[in-house]
Amino acid sequence: MKSNYIIALLFLTCLRFSGYSQELQKFSNPADEYRPWIFWDWMNDLITKKGITSDLEHFKRYGIRGTLIMLIGDESRFSNGGGAYLLWEKHNMPNPVVSQTPEFFSMWKFAAGEASRLGLSMCTQLGPGWCHSAGPWVKPEQSVQHIAYTETEVITGPGKRIKLLLTEGPVNLGMAYHSSPGSQDKPQWVQLTLPENSSIDRVILHPFNNGDILGYGFPVQFMIETADKADFSDCRTFYKTTSDIPAPRTTALVIKGKGHGRYIRLTTLKNYRSSSKQYLLSLAEIEVMEGYRNIASNAEVTASTSLERNEYSAKALTDNCSKTIFADADNSFALEQPGDQYFTADIAVLAYPDKAVIKPGEIIDLTSLFKNGRLDWTVPAGTWKIRRYAMRNALAFNHPAPVGGKGLECDKLDKDAVDAMFEGMVGRYLKDSPQLVGTTIKAFEADSWEVGNPEWSAKFKQEFIQRRGYDPTPWLITYHTSQVVGDAALTRRFLNDMYLTQTDLFAENFFSHLSNKAASLNMDFYTEPYLGPFDPIRMGGRVQVPTGEFWAAGHYQHSVRWAASSAHTYGKTRVATEAFTGRWDDGNWKMDPYGLKREGDLALCNGTNKMILHGTALQPWGTDVKPGMPMFFWGTMFAPGQTWMEPGKVWIDYLSRCQYMLSQGVNVADVVGLMPTLNWLNVMPKGLHKQYNYDLVSEETLLRDMDWKDGYFTLPSGARYRVLFLPETNGAMDANIIRKLTGLVKKGGTVVCQDRPKTAPGLTNYPECDKEVEQLAAELWGACDGKTVFRHELGKGRLIWMNKIWEDVPDIENTYLVKTRGGYSGALTNHWSPEFLELLHSFATPDVEVVKAGGKAMVWGGFDETTTGSRNGEEAIAWTHRRAGDTDIYFVSSQVATDNESELLFRVKDKTPELWDAETGKVYRPAQWSMQGDRIKLTIPFTPMGAVFVVFKPVHAASAGLPVYHAVQKISSEIPVTGNWQVSFPEGYDAPATATLTAGSWTENADPGIKYFSGTASYTTTVSVTKKQLRSTIVLDLGMVRNLAEVLVNNIQAGVLWKPPFKTEITSLLKPGKNTLTVKVTNTWWNRMVGDEQLPEDLKWYSANARGSQLKEIPKWVWTGEQRPSKDRITFTTWKYVKKDSPLVPSGLIGPVKLVFTE
């Protein structure tokens, strides 16, 4: 019996070790589902089978397992002088393939077949262009609809009958403002008067950008103020420049902040003057944003100097469409209907007395008296305004669309319009390759929201009445106008109901509808559900794969948090990201994997586990020319012609291992914040977490799914939280939310608020709704007022009033230019306020506490050097935590660009720590760890910008057999590898076949072929070791390498090194005596591009600006393979960033190289 027990125990132990071994194998070599995809941009009509096959085969080789196809083309919104995305005047390609033609769909079908052959997944956008869901097949009546009106004023005596032909307008007349040329430094201003006091999140300035006029762009310094009073006696500074912003050709200036008021004034403080001309403040448009709604569309505009009409302006700043009609004549006027892209459908005809504030009952609906464009009405005495309301398509087009692909954006509020949009392109793809749907063709995607806000649709009125319980028609006279009905508060309530109905229809008729369609096809719907007039958590939760983005320079990391919160709270397993989006100042063929690592690690800490690399254009010529064609100046150039993509496969492996680990189990967070459906911008934290992780939850998930069980707020997704905090309510909250919160608190939950609601937000069931809110708030808030009483116990739980939940962090995105931008960002960290932190400590110890950081957070620019200065609001350690069964998985990233050791406390007990290294795929035991009460203290040695998974498992014998992790090992001796290396260069790169070099940068070499070399060069030398030395662990230390190095010892690969330290252990590959050492070093394309600029030019370019230069014509020799005119030039690309005098970047095996013997 005893022997049977021992046999059974041994059998179970073997099973456990077998399972552990399989787990390690899955980590070391992740399955395809965990590998990155790539944005694959098909540029205009340059599509070839050769290019499709070449690109896909390269993607497969690099470890990329899917493509997201974008159809990109000529961007006609901007002139070339402003930095347009103008494509070539002539491209000389034989048999170009125009988008949406039979030839185009044949190419797409071919690409799907090739992807299937190679085992790759395919995803398509909903329509051409990166924005958004449109095409030439979308009819005007199916497109985005706005509310438009014309206004007629009637003055008459009692009982006068009128017959009026009411126009279909309006036409919005462009406005432009120019400061006076004669007052360079005299303060001047332009002022907007909004319909009512409003919250303000951003002000966007669009310059009048025309080279025919002297003086355009922005002043050097300016100030924006907001006020409640017209005389600005209570003004508040929204933003004031502290440094020069000349940028005369900037497309737009976005200023973020948190303001409130009815009056907004922009004042120039100093105008920019160059040696040749003076630039003045010259604006075509000012947008004042509340969330992502422009509330200045009908503001009154005044200025210290003249207002000028200008035909080049984007749209009106004010509504200039009124006309006075006296009732003693039959007057009529009509507006021209331009083109077949326009659509207008009547909504209603309304009349109301001409006074500042009117009562709801004074609005008369005349729609039944309006027929065939003519109103027949007996008018009461007085002055009346008559408005003819219609929905008119907004002329919102996709962009940047290829030839044949430009069309109207579909109406996102109407399912029928969405279906028509879907069938026009995606439906055609699926019908052409039905056998690949759900296997190879796995997804479709809607990218970033850049098309304005739909306001109405064919069924909007019925939907509004069903959802809100009243007819919106009479209230339309308040919609984005200065007219007040009842009072300003009632007007605001109606706007709330309008916005809420629009948002509901977005959720149901676009996001959920397309998600259901995807599910029926065994496909997924990916979307970036933000920057639009809707809550990103709710919309992200409505699709299969919520998606964020982060740029190479760090912007938009908060969108990753939004996407992750959608996934965590709605039960999604994947969090996708548009990853490493580059621009002319960072994605310009200079970037390497190490330069990308910091932001990639931060995105992983924010919650992504499915990166889609941004990106590469389809190379129609394959790799016949290099580096090839980018997507204008966007992207980080993961092209097949990129120098480092082949050795960079190890970096793709690193990302894949990280994504595998962060797909296990569920997210662990202690805090959850309620994201409001409306007015959600700037009311939630946006940075990384410190000590306690957090998610954001939508109102609909709170209402439908949240419960309180066993000491946690719980969701069906498996997410659970200790504390729930509320946004600022501005005095209004839906009764259903208060009722739900009350139930959760009574069960035992702790809810933290920042104010107290007094009314309902809308007009549904008004005024009884306010009484209900007041009664419910009295129960939940009790005597809490935020002044003398801060806590109310209710049932088993409590509500706590805190005036600050998190500390404000410096927002380095507070002001950014669409044209220029400096610096790197992304590690902004939320510091919970002391009082909130104290509350969290009362529930649990910190999930991760940094006892000692290895240094200060640093910025790695990825090009030439490490900027060692610390950044405000950034932490040296970023982390995230997941739990899979009884295993805790922490991803910990060091933001320090040097070797360092950090000490951390983890909220884990009775488990054994292991260190899973995603760079190598190996697993280690930590050298130093100990129990500290209910936590485990761990000392982690980090390499520069290093990261590691700390995995805590129940104690088992397998961990004891793991090697000990030493990022920095104790050195017993060193042998310098000095002298000459034999270096071989590839053919066709204008470099010598071989050269004898010492370690050092190629840029210091006198031979231009070496000085300007870009690509992979192979260094070879010999090193000798003794049998005694082989008893030590021997590490090859290459010193500094730019940028990647593949090491071979005696022709056996020892590894590919892509980040500091450039070291690898080679003990087992060495033999006593002489050994051949080979180092294959790869740099970036930058230096060769600069070298080519020293040679005669053989390409035609548009004029250069800050973004670089766009190629004017693709020459015939690119297609034919003939000798190019400037025969010594090596590189060909369609966007040029470099100049003849551009500084070179260090490249090659720089050293010093040595053999390091460690104990």
Gyration radius, in Å: 32 Å
For the residues shown, what is the average pLDDT? Answer: 86
Number of beta strands:
70
User: Would you state the CATH class of the largest domain?
Assistant: Alpha Beta
* Uncertain ranges: 5-13, 75-85, 169-184, 209-216, 274-278, 306-339, 811-826, 860-872
| Structural class by SSE content | alpha+beta
Task: Note the overall shape.
Answer: globular
Multimerization status: single chain
The helix content is 10-25%
User: Any idea how many domains?
Assistant: 6
Percentage of residues in DSSP E strands: 25-35%
CATH second-level architecture of the largest domain: Alpha-Beta Barrel
Distance between the termini: 48 Å
Number of DSSP helices? Answer: 18
Which sheet architecture does the biggest sheet show? 10 strands, antiparallel
- Look up the CATH topology of the largest domain: TIM Barrel
Would you mind describing this structure in some detail?
This protein has about 1150 residues and is of the alpha+beta class. The protein folds into 6 domains: about 30-140 and about 395-665, TIM Barrel; about 145-170 and about 320-395, no CATH class; about 175-310, Jelly Rolls; about 665-805, no CATH class; about 845-970, Immunoglobulin-like (Sandwich); about 975-1095 and about 1145-1159, Sandwich (Jelly Rolls), CATH 2.60.120. The strands form 17 sheets. Strands 7, 8, 9, 10, 11, 12, 13, 14, 15 and 42 form a 10-stranded antiparallel beta sheet that branches. It starts with a helix and ends with a strand.
